[in-house]
Amino acid sequence: YQRRVMGYTIDRGQDMTMLGATFSNLNDNMRLAKMVALGVAGVASIAIGLTLYRKQKVKKHARTFKAVLFDLDGTLVESKEIWYELLGAARIRYNRERIPYDAWESTFGQSMEKNHELFFEHITLQELCAFCDDNYAEYLHMLSVLEGASETLSSLHQAYGGNVVCVTNCPRKITEMILEKSGFNKIFPHVVCAADIVSHPEMNGDVRRLLPKPHPDTILHACRLLGVDPTDCVFVGDTSNDILAAKAAGCYSVGVRVQGGDKVIEAIGDLPAALDV
Questions:
Q1: Are 79 and 182 in contact (CB under 8 A)?
Q2: pLDDT of res. 22
């Protein structure tokens, strides 16, 4: 009488020691495999746990904001060539040579007061502002919206419940032309311009002109309009004046290809991801 057990031929009366040893080895292998499986599952559980912990930690420490304030020229729209041509025309109008581009380029985005101080000492500030207001439209066809700007504004307008504001050194009349041309006039509930004449309760009813960036005046006024503390706001700009003004106001500062702020982005389209929107 013979039979096969687990691949072995066993004769009746054969010593069962070999068969017992076989089953013992089999049990050991099964236990080892079970331990390996448990170990792999344990490592996977630890990895998942660490991932969840990191996500919770990042979420816990992520800073939240209530509003986003934007510079205009160079941040949302490309207008550098317009301003160069416009100021050059103003110099010629008042019997001066055009400004060399290299001497002018680093000043882009500064206030009209600063333009007057550097390049138009021979006329009054009022004459310079009037010339620019009256002639900017001639160059408006050169204006372009920066890539990603429209999508960024739409995304943040929704994310922050409409709390997005334009804060610019650009004169009011010219700002309104730019916003209408770009379509951004439908996005911003408030627009704050340097030299705006304003009044608010903290001034006891007095009125005065807002000072341009790098002074924080325009940013602080925008925060008052929103009823939001500056420390709960992000300010986004493309010049050192923007960053200096944001820091002086107490805002979180984001520079578009400019250093010195709390965060630097390469393009305005990168802003939603930078703010986790």
A1: no
A2: 46
The DSSP line for 97-154 is: PPPPHHHHHTTTT--HHHHHHHH-TTS-HHHHHHHHHHHGGGGGGG-EEPTTHHHHHH
Distances in Å between the alpha carbon of 248 and those of 102, 206, 230?
Answer: 29, 23, 10
Kindly compute the dihedral angle of the four CA atoms of residues 258, 264, 269, 273, in this order, to the nearest 10 degrees. -170
Using the structure block, give the residue that is written with the tokens 């990191």.
Answer: 54
Task: Read off the pLDDT of each residue in 208-225 and give the average, rounded to a whole number.
Answer: 95
Q: How many CB atoms lie within 10 A of CB 208?
A: 11
Helix (H) or strand (E) holding 80: helix 80-93
Q: And the tokens for 212?
A: 């341009």
Q: How far apart are CA 72 and CA 240, in angstroms?
A: 14
Backbone angles phi, psi at 211, to 5 degrees: -85, 145
With a CB cutoff of 8 Å and minimum separation 6, the contacts of 190 are: 165, 166, 222, 225, 226
Confidence (pTM): 0.76
Selected residue with higher pLDDT from 10 and 155: 155
Q: Please report which confidence band the pLDDT of residue 185 belongs to, taking 50, 70 and 90 as the band edges.
A: very high
Q: Which of 154, 191, 173, 174 is nearest to 272 (CA)?
A: 154
Q: Containing H/E element for 158?
A: helix 149-159
